[in-house]
Structure formats: C-alpha cells, structure tokens
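User: New here, any thoughts?
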Amino acid sequence: MTETTTGRPLGRRRFLQTTALAAGGTALVAAHPAAAQADADFEEWFGNVSNYEGIVDMRGAETVSVAVGAEGNGGGFAFEPAAVRVDPGTEVTWEWTGEGGVHNVAAEDGSYESEMVTDAGETFAHAFDGEGVSLYACTPHKAMGMKAAIVAGDIDVGASTAAPDYVPQEPEYDGWFDGVDNFEGTVDMRGREEVRIAVDTDDSGAPVFSPPAVHVDPGTRVLWEWSGDTAHAVAAADGSYTGPEQSSGMWGLAFDGTGISKYACSFHGDGGMRGAVVVGNIFEGVRELTVEQVSLLGVYGAALLSPLALGVLMWVRSWYGAAEETETLPSRAPPNSGV
C-alpha cells in the first residue's frame, strides 16, 4: 500500500464545523471537494445494489467507516453502508474485510482512487470538504452492483433515510411516550459529537420530534432543526431548559452526565409531540456533576442542571447566521433534587 492508506481516521471537526482540524503524522489522500453530482439520479445509481436500504445519517460522528467487501450482491461484493450522509469536512475511512477478492474505491469523477487491495484490515481515507454527492464503485465489480455514495452536507438527493439502529435495552420512560405515534424505540446515536432531531410533521400532518428518543454519549451536542410553518418550542419536562418559539432554524444543547432528559413541545406536548435524550450508561446509575467554566462559540444563556444530574450547557445557533457572542459561564454545583 502507498500513502493513500492510513490507519484509523484522525482529527475532530471544530464546534459548528468552523474549521477542519488536521492531525499530522499520517498520510491521507489530498482533500478534494465532494463532486457536484446532486443532480444525478441517486436511486438509479443504486438500482442493482442489493444492500442499499437508504442513506445512513452519520452527521456529527467523530469517525465514519465503510466496509469494503461486505456481504451483498451475491458475496463479498458490497460497500457497507452503501450510502452515507456526513458533515462537510468529514474524513471517511474504508476498511477491507478480505472477502470477495481484490477491491478498490474509485470515485466516478476521478477525484480519489485507492489501490487494488485484497488483505483484510487495510484502509483508505478521503476527506470531503464541500457539500455535494460523491458516487464511487469498486472497478472490478461495478457491474455486479458494488457501488456506493457519500452525501456531504444537507443537500436533498431525493432518497430516503435508512432505518435507524435502536438500543438493545430500552430505558424506562414511565409512560412518557404513550400516545406518541412515531415512537418505535430509542435510536442509538452514541459515538457522535453532534446529533440532529427534526422538528417536523409526520405523514398525517401531526407535529413530531423525529426521532423522538435518542441515546447519546456525555458531552454530545443535540440540535433541533425546525421545518414547516408552525411554531414549536422545546421545553424540558422538569423545567430545566426551554428553547425559543420558532418555525425555522436550529437550537441546541450540550448534554453531560448520566440520565434521561424528557422534553415536549410547549404548544403540542399534550398532542403527542414529546421526546427524550438518554445520556450515558443509565443502567449503571446516575453520577452527579459540576459545571466548569465554559466559553463556546455562540453560547447564550447559562449552565443548567436538571434533577437527573444532567449538565446542560445551552447554546443557540441561528440558521440565518446571527451575530456570534462569547460568554464565560461560572462553575455551579448540582442542586439536591430528586426525579
């Protein structure tokens, strides 16, 4: 293998992706913008790809990996997942399984290409700096359906989102999701720096949070994204935080500690517009927190602590680019309160 291969992907994107961080000492493929192929017929590209089940949303993930030689198309002739959505600036690492013979990773527009590889554990990395769609394939097995795509950014490619992964053990919500029609389980989003929850309507026009329940690691930023014409506001069931009333844009919190934060829309909670953020390993108990001094880009408000000992650092980001502010928050100890 040449310098086009690397071990585990390096670097972390800065808060709000203002700058892509680079880590030295590892040779990577030169970073080209994602190919401007958004007008391509996305579904047609995947017409003969047996393992394609929609786009896997990996925005906010610290690392994104794709298996080369996964099961599909009659053997070890697939990329898994076949379609991935990432943040601009994300480095994607492909890792060979050793199945299906010799494979490579080759962009349709020629912007990147790996060597032909057979050995399990070999890797190839490429960073996608701009918004767009990059279609790629394994050259020897393209006709068999060994094709895939990376979608960088929020562009609409007219494809569905793949079914989420749910946690193996459901938390106890004490009836919180009774009457929430779109609740099918807690979506496992651990391993991500940032998680997005849509503030939207379902197929019947009812207002919903989607997904309504997520499991994240301590320190994860959770973003609520509004769409549509109806105003909603995110409000904690225990009163520890309340978001702005709005019909578009984004608002978010950074959760730390261990516990469950239940929330609802201030206006439509009684109608089933409810959600929950599960933080950390709740089955090993809740640990108390203190909030250190914090200075973050775009921070508004103050540090809040819920009765579940969740350290909540509030920040707001305007979809339309409101002026940035920086505020230093004092240290606070958690209150002695029960659930």
Summary: Residues 1-40, 288-339 have pLDDT under 50 and may be disordered. The helical segments are 42-45.
